[in-house]
Records
---
Amino acid sequence: MAIKDTPEEWRITATATPFTGKKTSVRTDEVVMPDGSTVKRDYQVHPGSVAVLALDDEGRVLVLRQYRHPVRQKLWEIPAGLLDVPGENPLHAAQRELYEEAHVKAEDWRVLTDVYTTPGGCDEAVRIFLARELSEAEGERFEVSEEEADMELARVPVADLARGVLAGELHNNCLVVGVLSLLAAQSGDGLDALRPAEAPWPARPFQA
């Protein structure tokens, strides 16, 4: 049986924004339930993100390791970043992140999958791209700062990443979802059957 998520919006009677940060904010909505009662729902308002699963010709994935303060861990991740500009083309943002974090460019881009990271408490939507035909980017490396200044890069076989995911040793959501989606695509209709890089994204509409 084929299933899919569908849009729906319950009536909101009041809204407040008790906190506004540099990139995100916290919003409180009073939402009318199906039985007519009203409840308060607090959630983080997020601009959205992109992530890149960069796969080289040897079947290795480009990963990076950086400190994530909220969880007090150094996590292995795939290149990712915020949609800094409302309506920004997510492909352009993904290409920028791959260049800035790894100094790599790719000739072939596809949409691997789209996810909501924590829909019970945040409206963040992430588009994960598959990037292939990799090469070193031209020009000088982008100057990173803060946590990214301590970043470590590696290329790891897909099978090793999958083992780490299932063993509970790798925890970054974009890496986990990206690796398992890649394996599903490879064992299904193949990577060339993935959606084109400019495929519509209702969660974060953009101009192609």
Note: The CA atoms of residues 1 and 12 lie 33 Å apart.
---
Amino acid sequence: MGVPAIFKLVVYAFVTAIFTSYKEPLGAEEWGRRYTNLVSQSPIDPIPLFLPEHPAARGVYAHNNILQNLTKLGDGLLLFPEDLALDPTETFLYVTNEDGWIKKYYFADAKVENWTYVGGRPLGIALDNAHNVLVCEPIQGQLIQISKDTGAKTILTTEAEGVKFGLIDEVIVASDGLIYFTDATSKYPLATWWYDVLEARPHGRVMVYNPVTKSTKVLIKDLQFANGITLSKSEEHLIFCETTRARVNKHYLKGPKKGKTETFIDNLPGHPDNIHRNKAGDRFYFAMLGNRNALTDFVFQTPILKHLLAWDNKLWGLFSNMPYIARFLEVDEHGKPLRFYEDSTGKITGMITTAVPSDDGHIYIGGLRDNFVGRVKML
């Protein structure tokens, strides 16, 4: 099923209103002049992106309100927690906050501690093999290591192969100490991340940092908003997402397919963000931004609408503030969807960016519209 006729009429009316003088109909030459003017003022150079028809809300993807039963942790004390990491004993959570702080939430007494200030807007977080903390900080363009004992910070890397990080996003550490991480876009900063999504050109990368040689190498390039990343339990392959394309990929690090990239799961009902794996290695959890529908997919196909949204931040605000569906998906080690957790109206939580499974039978979630960490029982 394509874009509903009523939506096409609304789009036509909207574009006509933008380009019509209201005094008299526009001729082809004037339409062309106005379009050229719009393109010249637009900050992006978009291409049409045709995604597969978005999946219907049935079966595993049926709407539900499981997340409306979550428990709020640190309510009012955490600022838009984008990502989380459990300490090895699962006695507390590390939480990245919009105000530049890495905070700790302690389960025993519900205490929130301002642990270490990194500045900027920390995003992805993970622990290395010595249980020190690794943080992606995109505003300063840094991969940072923080001592678990002293909180002392060390900047590990700021560029790969001569290209600075534009939006360093998520990180994971292998058993051999190699650090894998994503740069969502090397073209646009965090402040205008949506320009990259609208443009739909491949500016994203997956990189690997070697702490012994202190070198950073590009592992995969030409990705469309490379975002969440994790490892399979065997560490044979990486699992990482391309947010713009609503898909998750698998990249082989070992074996006969070493160096090859395949699709792990495609045509998701939302745009995937951070990815986390359970300890058993047989479950992956993808947080998903928003809800794909006829409108969002049509915008991706239509450069003139992308120009309009990028040209006027107020229009983007209207588009991006449509009702948010909070959701994350659980899949098995083969990419088969198993369970869908959702707040279908955004009543309790919205714009989930991370879902972290624990050994205690719960999943901990963070998002860009919440001032708490959510805890929900595994199904």
Note: The chain has a mean pLDDT of 92.
---
Amino acid sequence: MSDPKHITDNENLNDYGIRINRWFLISLGAWPQISASNRKKKFAVSMQIFIYSTAMAIILIPCMLYMWLEKKDVETKLQAIIPLINRTSGFFHYWVLLTRNKDIQRCIRHMETDWKLIRRIDNRKVMLQYAKFGRFLTALCGTILGGSFIFVMIKTMETKTVVIGNKTITMHPMTCPMYSKILDWRLSPANEILLGVQYLSGFVIFWSIATVCGLAAVFAAHACGQLNVLHMWLNELAEEKNNHLAEQKLGAVVKHHWRVLSFVQQIESITHNACLAELMTGTANMCLMGYFVVMNWSEFDRANILSHVMAYVTAAIITFIYCYIGEILTEEVIL
């Protein structure tokens, strides 16, 4: 299965597929440290993870207390459950990235080895085609979720005037409501500080979801590329007239097929919990967003309708991507 004409820049070819995910993972402090790094770098990454986790906890716990302890009507609590679901899902995705760090590292190394093993130009063209597809899906996830995060930031930068007792104050609205008995988040400077913490936690949440989705897309696309290469080898094997050479090629096909199935199993091990969580939260979000669009339609509240429609579209696209990559990978494995 070799050819004298081959591409030698394996690292760049592998990096092309995972580059966007690498940027995401580094920004989250979750990039697998494949090469040995110094203590200062490890300490910096540990501090980064600690700060991100603390920021998410500061927002998530008061939001849960608000849901359980604040005496609010059902409509208000339904409004609060949407950001709570999103933050819980984002926290879970971040936890998956941190705890499955070594498995992600193994998958990246597996991909790099595949580029080294397969040297023929026609095979590599197929692999590169699927690498581009995985990269496109990763960029799509990042663009959609990044756009949603920017929209949320812009929305919370606006101020509104509220009356507390005998005082009239100006405050920034929170994307995630918080339990006010511990700390009144409406008053300055708590309002501005918590707003900054919400921005930081929102960045981690949106980027964690985008990263897991992107990794699933890149890994699944690479596996599909490998399976298509196997199909090419099998077609050549069917036309081979030399029995001895056919036996050698069949051995290579069987060995590589086992290698691809092992890679698919690793993908499933890393992503199955996150995929299930995203499908559940995505479905819940779409149901709730649809409900609020209908409820706000009678009042024709354009701002609320627009925000709910955008959130609905975001949840629908991310859910579709997960379902799509799972479907095409299943079809390729069965074939």
Note: The chain is about 80% helix and 5% strand.
---
Amino acid sequence: VTAFIDGSVIYGSDNKTATMIRQFKSGKLRMLKTPDGRDLLPPSTDPNDGCNRPQERARNRYCFASGDARANENLHLTTMHLLWARQHNQIAGNLSRVNPHWHDEKIYQEARRIIGAQMQHITYNEFLPVIIGETEVESRNLKPLNGKDFRKIKEDVNPAIANNFATSAFRFAHTLLPGLMKMTDAQKGTADYVELHRMLFNPYSLYSKGGVESSIQSATSNNIQMTSPHVTSELTRHLFEDPTEHKDKPFIPCGLDLVSLNIQRGRDHGLPGYTKWREYCNLTKPETFEELEGVWNYETLKDIQGIYSDIDDVDLYTGALAEETSADGIVGPTFTCLIGQQFQRLQEGDRYWYEAEDQPYPFSP
């Protein structure tokens, strides 16, 4: 995928993927039509894609193909990919009816532009204010202009994804996930709970009647956890654990540890420690653990102090997650700073931003 919020997760960012997902008819994306007439994402029939299972292939049920190879990583993510693909096809159908003289490529590209604009608007209007807070969004002028004017794009702004964002800051959401996920059955009107790791690389319920509706209801009815250094054991002991293995020894942990991976990734990428990023964000730089009283809660402070021998050794991921959250956001001040900066650059440095006047064929304000 690209660094931009441009829908590349739907459309791909290389010719092979972009070609694979298209119908090349009426500007639409490929879909798998179920026997009862529902549209699903096209199947990924590669037995080595890390998702497909022999017992499901025997039932002619496969994982799904999309513009992003990670589309099957969890059920709710697969569902979002499907909803956006359906949205593209709906827009393409409407454009075709209004403009019957348009050819496939024209319809496809225009629908793609609209989808990218919708993604950008939703991200900045609905998502960011929840994460970093309305105050930070307003201070960085990130709110959509709502048709009042065009946005000036800055040629000297680099919109590339920062190392601190990719390897640490935007991984804050891993702490939000509950260990047990509420799973609803839209057909029966019932609900049950399933261990989080059993939803990973397991999109097969979408084949069932009501499967998509059930997944959407499940995604919208689960409560997130608070941002903190404490992460469910579903992600620290059972990440990508194959639920078909070790049936006779259910208490043997054989999955990965996502938190360890996040911390080690930061070290592998050469990220400076937590105190350096506090200084970078014009926040107070602590010289001792005691100076973090009030920044971290007392219990967290004692826990981390027992792990790290020196305050300057604390990893960015560990330290930033330990911070008390901002008044109107769900992350602390360091991650608020780094996430806010990244989304500001993505907006100011994207010449195809949907509110930009200087882009080729701009949208009307």
Note: The chain has 14 helices and six strands.
